[in-house]
C-alpha cells in the first residue's frame, strides 16, 4: 500500500462518497477485482468498455448447466431444467428488448466479426456502380479487415471499395451532417454503410436513426456494429429501420471474454428468399429439424442465419447478464450513466485544464455513452495506464499511441471510482509549465 498523497488538485473525495450513498447503482451484483496498487482494497474498474465484470450470479448459473450435463448426458437436450434444444430462445426476448427489436429479429450466436461476415454475405451485394462500403476511419481494425476482405471476396479492390470517413481537420469526431452529406452526394456508389454505433476510440455515439435514414434514402444497406453501444445506450433498431446490426457481449453485457454475440436483422428482410445466406442445420425450422432432410426450410426469422447448434455453456453467462438488464432496465441505467459520466467529465475538466491531456469524446451527453477518451500529449498511453493500475489501483484502457479510455459503467462503477481515476491521473501526469 502506498502512503496517501496530498491531492494535487481541488477534487473532493468526500463528495464522491456522498454521491455514492445517494446513487448506489448495482455494484453488489458484481465481482470487483482487487486493486493491484494504491491505497484502496478494490480496483477502480473503468475498463468495462473492454471487458465487463463478472456478475455474481454467473458462476452458479453456469454450474447448474454443467450439472445437467453430468446428470443427464444426451437427455439434457430435452430434460435439463433449461433444455438445451430451445436454450437459445431464452436469450432472444431479453436481447430483443435491449436493442429495441422484435424477438423474430434477434438472435444470440457466434462472435461479432463472424456475425458481421455472415450478415455481409446477405447484405453486401455490390453491383454495377454501387460497390462501396462506407466505414469510419477510426473503425475498429477487425471491422476494417472484415470489409476489406469482403471487397476482395467479390473481386474488388479494397482500397477503392472501402471509403473511410474522417472527422474534419482539427476535429476528433465525425459530424452527422458530414456522414449524411457524403451519402447524399455519393450514395449511388454505396452498397453498404457499416459504422460503429458508439466509436470504440472516441466514445462518440453516432446519430443512428439519422445516418440510417440517409443511407437507406441513398439506396444503400445500413448495418451497425454495436459492440460499444449495446448495454451502454438505449437502442430502437426496429423503429430506426436499421437493416442489420451485430454486437458482442463481453463489454457492457458482462458475459465474459469472447462471449457469444448478438445479431439483428430487420423484419422486412426476414423470409426473403432472394437473400443469399450461409446455412447449417440450425438454419432450418425447429419443428422439422430432426426429420434430417437434405434441403433446409429456413424460418421467416433471424434464426435462419444460425448455422450450428448453440454452445450451451457459452450461452449461460449471456442469459444471466441479459436477465440483469431486463430486471434493471436500460432507461434507469442510462439515467445513472448520464449522472456518472457527467461527474467524471467535470473531474477530468479540472485535471486536464493545466495538463497535456484532452478529452476527445463529444461534450454533448446525447452524443456519447459512458466512455470518456483522453488524448495524452506526451508519452505512451500503455505506460500511463500501467502506472494508473500499479500505483493507484485504477484500471483504464490504453489505445496506442495516445488514447486512454475511462468508462464508468452504470451497473457497477461508483462516483468514488471516477474520483480515483481523476485523482490518479492528476498524480501521474505532471502539470504543464
Ligand atoms: C467495435 C468493435 N468491433 C469488433 C470487435 C471485434 O470483436 P470480435 O473479436 O468479438 O469479433 C471489437 C472488439 O473489441 C470492437 O470493439
UniProtKB/TrEMBL annotation:
**Which positions, given as ranges, span the membrane?**
none
Protein function: Catalyzes the cleavage of L-kynurenine (L-Kyn) and L-3-hydroxykynurenine (L-3OHKyn) into anthranilic acid (AA) and 3-hydroxyanthranilic acid (3-OHAA), respectively.
According to its UniProt record, in which pathway does this protein act? Amino-acid degradation; L-kynurenine degradation; L-alanine and anthranilate from L-kynurenine: step 1/1; Cofactor biosynthesis; NAD(+) biosynthesis; quinolinate from L-kynurenine: step 2/3
Q: Recorded GO terms, molecular function?
A: kynureninase activity
Q: Which UniProt keywords apply?
A: Hydrolase, Pyridine nucleotide biosynthesis, Pyridoxal phosphate
- SUPFAM superfamilies, per this entry? PLP-dependent transferases (SSF53383)
Positions contributing to pyridoxal 5'-phosphate binding: 112-113, 140-143, 225, 228, 250, 281, 309
Q: Which cofactor does the UniProt annotation name?
A: pyridoxal 5'-phosphate
Q: EC number(s) for this protein?
A: 3.7.1.3
Q: What is this protein called?
A: Kynureninase
Gene that encodes it: kynU
PANTHER family, per the entry: KYNURENINASE
Highest taxon, organism lineage:
Bacteria
Task: Give the similarity note.
Answer: Belongs to the kynureninase family.
- For the modification N6-(pyridoxal phosphate)lysine, the affected residues are 251
Q: How does it assemble?
A: Homodimer.
Catalytic reactions of this protein: L-kynurenine + H2O = anthranilate + L-alanine + H(+); 3-hydroxy-L-kynurenine + H2O = 3-hydroxyanthranilate + L-alanine + H(+)
Top-tier EC class: hydrolase
Amino acid at each position: 500500500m502506498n502512503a496517501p498523497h496530498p491531492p494535487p488538485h481541488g477534487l473532493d473525495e468526500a463528495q464522491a462518497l456522498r454521491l455514492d450513498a445517494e446513487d448506489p447503482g448495482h455494484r453488489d451484483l458484481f465481482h470487483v477485482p482487487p486493486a493491484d496498487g494504491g491505497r484502496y482494497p478494490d480496483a477502480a474498474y473503468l475498463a468495462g468498455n473492454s471487458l465487463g465484470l463478472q456478475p455474481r450470479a454467473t458462476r452458479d448459473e453456469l454450474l447448474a448447466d454443467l450439472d445437467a450435463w453430468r446428470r443427464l448426458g444426451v437427455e439434457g437436450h430435452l430434460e435439463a431444467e433449461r433444455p438445451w434444444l430451445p436454450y437459445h430462445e431464452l436469450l432472444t426476448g431479453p436481447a430483443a428488448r435491449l436493442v429495441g427489436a422484435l424477438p423474430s429479429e434477434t438472435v444470440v450466436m457466434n462472435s461479432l466479426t463472424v456475425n458481421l461476415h455472415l450478415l455481409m454475405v446477405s447484405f453486401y451485394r455490390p453491383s454495377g456502380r454501387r460497390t462501396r462500403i462506407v466505414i469510419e476511419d477510426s473503425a475498429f481494425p477487425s471491422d476494417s479487415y472484415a470489409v476489406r476482405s469482403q471487397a476482395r471476396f467479390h473481386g474488388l479492390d479494397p482500397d477503392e471499395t472501402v471509403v473511410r470517413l474522417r472527422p474534419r481537420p482539427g476535429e476528433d469526431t465525425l459530424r452527422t451532417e458530414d456522414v449524411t452529406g457524403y451519402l447524399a452526394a455519393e450514395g449511388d456508389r454505396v452498397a453498404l454503410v457499416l459504422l460503429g454505433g458508439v466509436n470504440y476510440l472516441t466514445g462518440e455515439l453516432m446519430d443512428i436513426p439519422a445516418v440510417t435514414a440517409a443511407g437507406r434514402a441513398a439506396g444503400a444497406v445500413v448495418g451497425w456494429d454495436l459492440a460499444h453501444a449495446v448495454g451502454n445506450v438505449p437502442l430502437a433498431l426496429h423503429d430506426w429501420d436499421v437493416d442489420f446490426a451485430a454486437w458482442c457481449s463481453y463489454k457492457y453485457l458482462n458475459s465474459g471474454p469472447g462471449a457469444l454475440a448478438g445479431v439483428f436483422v430487420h423484419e422486412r428482410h426476414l423470409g426473403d428468399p432472394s437473400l443469399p445466406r450461409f446455412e447449417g442445420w440450425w438454419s432450418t425450422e425447429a419443428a422439422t429439424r430432426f426429420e434430417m432432410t437434405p434441403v433446409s426450410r429456413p424460418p421467416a426469422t433471424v434464426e435462419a442465419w444460425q448455422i450450428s447448434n448453440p454452445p450451451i455453456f457459452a450461452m449461460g453467462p449471456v442469459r444471466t447478464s441479459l436477465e440483469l438488464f431486463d430486471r434493471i432496465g436500460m432507461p434507469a441505467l442510462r439515467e445513472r450513466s448520464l449522472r456518472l459520466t457527467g461527474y467524471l467529465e467535470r473531474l477530468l475538466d479540472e485535471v486536464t485544464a493545466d495538463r497535456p491531456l484532452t478529452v476527445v469524446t463529444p461534450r454533448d451527453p446525447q452524443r456519447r455513452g459512458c466512455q470518456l477518451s483522453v488524448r495524452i500529449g506526451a508519452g505512451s498511453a500503455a505506460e500511463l495506464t500501467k502506472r494508473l493500475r500499479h500505483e493507484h489501483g485504477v484500471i483504464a484502457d490504453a489505445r496506442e499511441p495516445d488514447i486512454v479510455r475511462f468508462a464508468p459503467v452504470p451497473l457497477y462503477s461508483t462516483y468514488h471510482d471516477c474520483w480515483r481515476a481523476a485523482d490518479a491521473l492528476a498524480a501521474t501526469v505532471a502539470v504543464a509549465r
